[in-house]
Amino acid sequence: MTCDPWLKMVIAHHRFDLLNEADIIIICVPTPLKSMNQPDLSYVVSATREIAGRLKTNQLISLESTTFPGTTQEVVLPILESTGHTVGKDFFLAFSPERVDPGNKRYTTRDISKVIGGVTPMCRDVACAFYSQSMKQVVPVSSPAAAEMTKIFENTYRSVNIALVNEFMILCDRMGLDIWEVVDAAATKPFGIQTFYPGPGVGGHCIPVDPVYLAWKAKDYGFYTRFIDLAGEINMQASEYVVQKLAAILNKQKKCLNGARILVLGVAYKKDIDDIRESPALRIINFLQQNHAEVVYHDPNVPKFQLSGEHEGYMQSLNLTREEIAGADCVLILTDHSSIDYQWVAEHARLILDTRNATKNVRKGKDKITKI
Ligand SMILES: NC(=O)c1ccc[n+]([C@@H]2O[C@H](COP(=O)([O-])OP(=O)(O)OC[C@H]3O[C@@H](n4cnc5c(N)ncnc54)[C@H](O)[C@@H]3O)[C@@H](O)[C@H]2O)c1
C-alpha cells in the first residue's frame, strides 16, 4: 500500500476547522498527571471529540501521546465510533508513540523507529504506509495496547536504571567513592551494561510521569508495580540528597543554608534544552527556599520561569559574571549546559556542588568542587 504524496499537512493546534481538510490526523496532546497521581486524559478526550465532530471517510487517526495501555481502544475508539462510523472500514485508528529525545542530535525523529499498533489489521497497514513515507523504519505490533506499553516500558526502563545509579551515587558518597569513576569504568565492559548517569533527580514530562500512568492502570488488574514506585521514590530522594549535601558542605565552612546565597547553574531538566517541566531544579530550589537560602540562578536557555509553592513567583536568570560567581556562598550545578565555561566558574567560585560531573575537565580550582 502506498500513500498519496499530495496528502495535506496541517497543524491544527486550536484550528479544529482544518481537521476537515486532513487525510491523516495525529493526536499529540499533553498527557499530564492530576493531583493524586491520576492520569489526566482530558486533552486526549477533548482533541478526539473535536475530530469526531468532523470525522470523514477514510481518515487515519494516530494517537502519539504517551499513555497507559488501553487508551486507544477504551477511550479514543468509543468517541470516534459514537459518530456511527466503523473503525477499519470508514476510518482507521492506530497508536504510535512519540519517541523523540529533545536535544539529541545523533538520533532525530526520522532515525527512531516508529512502533505502530492498529485497532484492526487494515488500521495497522494504513498507519504503516503513512509513517514509512517519512521514517527510516516502522515496527508494526499486534495492537495499540502493545504499542502503548512499549513506550511506557522504555520510559520505565530509564526511570529504574536512573534510580539504580542514583542509589549507587548516595552509597558511593557515603563510602568515599566517586560514582562517576565507577560508572565510566563499568561502561568499558563491551556487553551486559548500558550507561546511565546519576544526577539531582529526574525531570521532563516523560520519565517522572509516564510510568505513573502504567502504575495506575496496573491497579485495574490487581497488580502493584513495585519497580515503578521504588524508582520514583529513589529519584525523588536524589533531589533531597542534593540539599542535604549542600547543607553539609556549607557546614564545613561554618555556614548554614539559612541566609546562604546559592547560585544555581542550570534549571532545565537536562543539558542544552530549555524545558523545565518536572525539572529537579524546581524541587531543589523550593527545598532551599524553605530552608531560607537566598537562591539565584543562571540558565542560558531559560531566561525566566514561574516557581510554584510557598515562594511562588517569577525567577529571572542573572548574568553569569565573575562577581555573581564569587558572591555566592556556593555554586550549585544542576544542569550541565555545554555553553558554560566550568573552568572559569571554578576559578571564581568559593564552593561548587556539582551534581552532573560538569566540572570533570576542570584543572584549576578543583579543591573547591564537591561532586555527587
Ligand atoms: N516532547 C517530547 O519530547 C515528547 C517525547 C516523547 C513523548 N511525548 C509525548 O507526547 C505528548 C505531547 O507532549 P509535548 O511535549 O509535545 O506536549 P505540549 O505540552 O508541548 O503540547 C503539545 C501540543 O498540544 C496542543 N494541545 C493542547 N491541548 C490540546 C487540545 N485539547 N486539542 C488540540 N491540541 C491541543 C498544544 O497547543 C501543543 O501544541 C505527551 O503525551 C508526551 O508524553 C513527548
What does this protein structure show overall?
This protein has helices spanning 42-52, 71-81, 121-131, 144-175, 179-186, 210-218, 226-252, 280-290, 322-327, 342-348, and strands at residues 24-27, 60-63, 92-95, 114-118, 138-141, 261-265, 294-298, 304-307, 313-316, 330-333, 352-354, 369-371. With 372 residues, it is an alpha/beta fold. Helix 2 links the parallel strand 2 and strand 3 (92-95). The longest helix has 32 residues, at 144-175. The protein is elongated. The N and C termini lie far apart (54 Å). Bound molecules: nicotinamide-adenine-dinucleotide. Residues 13, 28-31, 43, 46-47, 65-66, 98-100, 102, 205-206 line the site of nicotinamide-adenine-dinucleotide (NAD).
Secondary-structure blueprint of this entry?
Layout: E1 24-27, H1 42-52, E2 60-63, H2 71-81, E3 92-95, E4 114-118, H3 121-131, E5 138-141, H4 144-175, H5 179-186, H6 210-218, H7 226-252, E6 261-265, H8 280-290, E7 294-298, E8 304-307, E9 313-316, H9 322-327, E10 330-333, H10 342-348, E11 352-354, E12 369-371
Parallel strand pairs: 1-2, 2-3, 4-5, 6-7, 6-10, 10-11, 11-12
Antiparallel strand pairs: 3-4, 8-9
Bound molecules: nicotinamide-adenine-dinucleotide.
